[in-house]
Amino acid sequence: xxxxxxxxxxxxxxxxxxxxxxxxxxxxxxxxxxxxxxxxxxxxxxxxxxxxxxxxxxxxxxxxxxxxxxxxxxxxxxxxxxxxxxxxxxxxxxxxxxxxxxxxxxxxxxxxxxxxxxxxxxxxxxxxxxxxxxxxxxxxxxxxxxxxxxxxxxxxxxxxxxxxxxxxxxxxxxxxxxxxxxxxxxxxxxxxxxxxxxxxxxxxxxxxxxxxxxxxxxxxxxxxxxxxxxxxxxxxxxxxxxxxxxxxxxxxxxxxxxxxxxxxxxxxxxxxxxxxxxxxxxxxxxxxxxxxxxx
Length: 295
Ligand code: NAP
Prior knowledge:
The protein is an alpha/beta fold.
């Protein structure tokens, strides 16, 4: 899988595909992130965004295997539906109940989920964390599931906050199954919320609130020094949640670290190589400041 030297024709007949399947998918940063890393490491793979209507998912996955694809990422809305198409699942994919990475192997089609390991890696790179650290996760959707597993893997103590208490409690059980020391789910309107947020080390926004400038519930805007505000949103780079946390002296991080770290974990699986994180991150930042022309 080594590329021809610089200046020689490329791609060639030997170049094999990687990609991301989604609907829609033309906004994805994954092609620039992966292609920058593949270019730097001289790996003879090319990564494309592939729009796939939900009805066509089984056909496309089967066809990609026939075309000798090495692997693909899978994004909204296919992450759950693709589970049934896999021959094997990693523990992470089974726990989360969703797949974001497919790899064609000699044993068949493997489904993995690198979102949780990506968030765990990003959080540990960004802040010193100890066993038993207290986390709050806002949200109960797909990203919050990955966050619950990430906190479990960090042996944290965790409170999941959602507007559907039953969903929050289900995610708390997932966190415990993943290794969390303790986990509870609470309603976003609970009287406990201010105390829970004030007592946490890391507060994760795993909702889309903030993408359009929305603010979170009041307790999420009262973080202070010693606390870490983690927003999974990366566009815009600073949400009202992160801005108020930074103004009050908390440590703040957007979702770019998770995006790059989950990509790096997929890249490792496909290429067997450690990903160049700095190159991936720089490519993502550059792409965010140069959005592609409208299709
Ligand atoms: P999702 O599955 O649609 O879940 C969204 C969650 O937000 C749900 O729990 C939803 O509650 C909750 N929510 C929405 N509006 C709310 C409101 N007004 N009040 C309280 N809760 C509200 O979406 P997702 O895939 O988890 O994505 C969530 C965010 O994470 C998005 O901004 C996405 O871009 C980001 N993300 C980032 C990365 C990364 O690599 N950085 C990866 C994945 C996702 P209900 O369930 O009650 O509707």
